[in-house]
Amino acid sequence: MYRGTFLVFLFIFLLGINTYGWRTSGVNHILIFELDPRNHLTHQEFLELAMFFLALWCLSLLTYLLSVVLHIPVFASPLALVAFCLVYLFNPIRVLHYKARRWLIKLLFHIVTAPFHYVGFADFWLADQLNSLTTVLLDFEYLVCFYAIEVNWHGENKPSICGGVTYGIRPIVAALPSWFRIAQCFRRYRDTKHAFPHVANAGKYAITFLVVLFSTLNSIYREHHGDEVKHNNAFFYLWILSAFVSTCYTFIWDVKMDWGLFDRNAKENLFLREEIVYAHKAYYYFAMIEDLLLRFTWTITVTIGEKEIINSEVLKTVVASLEVFRRFVWNFFRLENEHLNNCGQFRAVRDISIAPMNANDQALLELMMDEEDGVTNRKLSRKKNLNNKLSLYTELLMNDDDD
Questions:
Q1: DSSP calls for 331-370
Q2: pTM (2 decimals)?
Q3: Exposed site from 11, 41, 122, 252, fewest CB < 10 Å?
């Protein structure tokens, strides 16, 4: 009931730390994501938003635990929490980070309709985040199913069917994030005509389909034949094999393609790359080891989970939280590589400044956002606004010179 929302709020909190790290290290996430520098959320706003929703989550959970004492329906609290989040996201009133919410909804629409839209960096980046939030999608699907079919507000609930795979919806939901990325990869191939890396990247996500397929068939087989055959059927071993291949594939892609490490020209930056942004090489070595270990957390469900040493839902929560943390670390080095090398070829030029942003940089970015290449018949008010900003930027530079 509460795991999915907790993971989302945890993700927002960690994204605030990501934003702070990019800004202070000089990784220009505003330019990479093509954000309007006047309207994007700062790291303070991300952290404030996360803490507000986490406090609301705690309040809702407390209300759920004390529902009998408070004389309210036991399942009203989790439903109210999700409803509040959806109202916040889709609220059409121009308040509460309206432009940021509209930007997010637009990206989500582009992801769902990926084959029919040009794929920008922000589109594929958010789709990658969804691959780490598959548990959130599955929990949301369970919530919809539970409140639509199982819950009984005036008596005992109906028999549980929403957590199983036999009715076919959960495997489809589990495969959706990978499908979004496959569609984006083939759209990128159509636009660039480069089989590598786009088709190869699509193959990485296609293997996830096999993992979901064999995992589902293994669960169905066990439901029909009992737990005594849980390690004695072909689907179980095919699931393990496909998961192992997928994990190795994705880890190699992470460090080599997404982060650009193991560069031949690394010189003194052993196993890294020629240019690095972050202050200590240890960060990179830690990230590689951490990514490898957390990529293999699914093995915990095969060992500890299968032996039922720990409750399966508790184990899933721990594994899902670790995956959110892995993606948090991945974000630092993926944007750094894009900043340095334009590895995704989303920008027309490669070189952008590597320095922490200050007030002068903010003013300059606003000027760049206002400029329209090739357009000279701008309205007078727009010209006046631009001239005012040029004067402001000149004054800032003069103040720096005086200092």
A1: HHHHHHHHHHH-TT--SS------S---HHHHHHHHHHHH
A2: 0.85
A3: 252
Q: In sequence order, what DSSP letters do the residues of 297-328 get, joined into one string?
A: THHHIIIIITTTSS-HHHHHHHHHHHHHHHHH
- Cα-based distances in Å from 346 to 93, 182, 195, 220: 32, 18, 16, 43
Count of helices and strands (H, E) across the chain: 16, 0
210-241 per-position pLDDT tens digit: 999 999 998 888 888 776 666 778 999 999 99
Q: Are 370 and 35 in contact (CB under 8 A)?
A: no
Instruction: For residue 96, give the amino acid letter.
Output: L
381 exposure class (CB count in 10 Å sphere: 0-12, 13-18, 19+): exposed
Q: List, as one string, the DSSP characters of 211-277.
A: HHHHHHHHHHHHHHH-GGGTTSSHHHHHHHHHHHHHHHHHHHIIIIIIS--S-TT-TTSTTS-S---
- From residue 58, alpha-carbon distances to 69, 92, 142, 345 in Å are 17, 27, 21, 43
| 379's tokens | 């309205």
pLDDT in tens, 180-194: 999 999 999 999 999
Q: What is the pLDDT of residue 196?
A: 93
Query: Can you give the length of the chain in residues?
Result: 403
Q: Using only C-alpha atoms, what is the Rg of the chain?
A: 24
DSSP 129-149: HHHHTHHHHHHHHHHHHIIII
**Helix H or strand E encompassing 394:** helix 380-402
Nearest to 332 by CA among 386, 260, 394, 396: 260
Query: Based on the number of CB atoms within 10 Å of its own CB, is 86 exposed (0-12), middle (13-18) or buried (19 or more)?
Result: exposed
3-state secondary structure (DSSP) of residue 91 = coil
Reply yes or no: is the peptide bond before residue 356 cis, omega within 30 of 0: no
How far is the C-alpha of 382 from the C-alpha of 114, rounded, in Å? 34
Contact 128, 250 (CB under 8 A): no
Round to whole Å and give the CA distance between 155 and 332: 50
**Cα gap 24→105, rounded to integer Å:** 28
- CA–CA dist 107, 129 (Å, integer): 12
